[in-house]
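Subject — a protein and its fold

Tokens — whole-number codes for backbone shape
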Amino acid sequence: PEGNPVELALRVESVMEGVLVTGTARAVAEGECVRCLEPLSQDVAADFQEMFSYHDADDRGRTIRVEPADDAEDEDRLFIEDSLFDLEPVLRDAVVLALPMQPVCRETCAGLCSTCGIRLDENPDHHHDAVDIRWAALQGLADTVKDGEKDNMGGAEAGVDEKQEK
């Protein structure tokens, strides 16, 4: 969340091309479980390494004007500006990549009923009798059959058995 602290462990090295920053960012991420939509908090640790380059300079240390053709090559490079470098985009990218794609409150979370939205962890026996529309016409036939008609089938089979015994 915005305004919450982010713990950084950094190693800053001066190299010929600029400054190499290696580190780990630790923070607490807050969100919702993708299964039951309950709020959750999760510790996140993200490792990163980034090179902040010096601008090209002449022998006197003055910045050399970059030609427009060189801008495309430098688009992905990060530069040191007035002896400072900005870690925010690097940290944001590293933390976002470290976040789980589908955070869950716990691995055994059953989620919500897709029909009515009730939490299945609180009601483990919850279910809906769903009728497959392909069999719906037969349901109407089953309701019209009377109990006596069902027994006739059994009686016919019993008659066959009696003949075989004689």
